[in-house]
Amino acid sequence: DAKTTQPNSMESNEEEPVHLPCNHSTISGTDYIHWYRQLPSQGPEYVIHGLTSNVNNRMASLAIAEDRKSSTLILHRATLRDAAVYYCILRAQGGSEKLVFGKGTKLTVNP
Amino acid sequence: DTAVSQTPKYLVTQMGNDKSIKCEQNLGHDTMYWYKQDSKKFLKIMFSYNNKELIINETVPNRFSPKSPDKAHLNLHINSLELGDSAVYFCASSQDPIPSTDTQYFGPGTRLTVL
């Protein structure tokens, strides 16, 4: 699985948008971009995934750069409950079932 | 109803003991996993089973033996526990036969402390 690079930590204020960046300059054409998050003392949970087009769901939006070398997870209005470690993970088509977690970005949300 | 459940939530034991962690999923998924999160918070895959058959074994010591009595359960048995086995163990499951697009659902974790 290709590598991703994320900032170690970010801070946001409650009810403001948050943009979490992920660089994946060695992404291949068939790698999907997945985001998971891990709230304190809980297991990871799926957030969103995409291939080329931007994606929206009830939790977040995923903006993918045109060259696919980077992507941004967007939380439109951060809440205290969004404080978590966010992981950007590439998954190759035809690749392994396992998720390969990096260090992720620890998001702190200030009230 | 909890989708992926693990028991126990906490496990404290002495070095050299044998212990088991149980995992059950009620999602009807075919694939189940065990991940380990160490003290530095790195999450790594240990095993994966699909329909009771082992498909991933990530160079885990053979003191760790997963057992899948049916596709809804994947238990983890650990022999001769060592200090370095102290970690949080997460069970997960998924259904999509295409790994690049599947979603994995994680349990709440079991915190194992070896004294």
Report on this model:
The complex is a heterodimer of chains A (111) and B (115). Chain A is mostly beta strands and 111 residues long. Chain A contains no helices and nine strands. Chain A is globular. Chain B contains no helices and eleven strands. In chain B, strands 2, 4, 5, 6, 9, 10 and 11 form a seven-stranded mixed beta sheet that branches. The mean pLDDT of chain B is 92. Classes of the chains: A mainly beta (111), B mainly beta (115). At the A-B interface, strand 3, strand 4 and strand 8 of A face strand 4, strand 5, strand 9 and strand 10 of B.
Order of helices and strands of chain B: EEEEEEEEEEE
Radius of gyration of chain A: 13 Å
Distance between the termini of chain A: 37 Å
Q: Helix count of chain A?
A: 0
Cα separation of the termini of chain B? 34 Å
Look at the helices and sheets of chain B and give the structural class. Answer: mainly beta
Number of DSSP helical runs of chain B: 0
- Greatest interface by residues involved: A-B, 25 and 29 residues
Main beta sheet of chain A: 5 strands, mixed
Sum up the structure in keywords.
heterodimer, A: mainly beta, four-stranded antiparallel sheet, 9 strands, 48% strand, B: 115 residues, mainly beta, 11 strands, 55% strand, globular
Which SSEs are present, and which pair or pack?
The complex is a heterodimer of chains A (111) and B (115).
Chain A lengths: L8 E5 L4 E6 L7 E8 L5 E7 L4 E2 L4 E4 L5 E6 L8 E9 L12 E6 L1
Parallel strand pairs in A: 1-9
Antiparallel strand pairs in A: 2-7, 3-4, 3-8, 5-6, 6-7, 8-9
Chain B lengths: L3 E4 L2 E4 L5 E7 L5 E7 L5 E8 L2 E5 L6 E7 L2 E6 L8 E8 L10 E2 L3 E5 L1
Parallel strand pairs in B: 2-11
Antiparallel strand pairs in B: 1-3, 3-8, 4-5, 4-9, 5-6, 7-8, 9-10, 9-11
